[in-house]
Amino acid sequence: MKLDDTDHRIIAALRKNSRQSIRDLAKALALRPSTVHERIRKLRAEGVIEKFTIKLNNAAIGEGFIVFMLVLGKPTQYVGKTLLDQPNIKEVFGVTG
After folding, report:
1. Which residue, 14, 16, 50, 79, shows the most beta carbons closer than 10 Å to its own?
2. Going by C-beta distance under 8 Å and a sequence separation of 6 or more, which residues neighbour residue 90?
């Protein structure tokens, strides 16, 4: 999907606040609400927008630290799922190269 200026403006606004209403977003971008709604629908359908999420203050919810670990071994498709089954592990990333 080729993104135009309107798509980029919508994405930038959603990065700042993905919870704002279509109406508020349209007003801020000087677009019609139907235009914003349809663009977001297309961005989701094409996989440009994968999900809407939140960013937590980890310290405020009692999860005040981040750990980076080096795990040596043969990666498999199950490692991420196995780690994410642990209640204190929220995200798992892999790095190669």
Report:
1. 14
2. 63
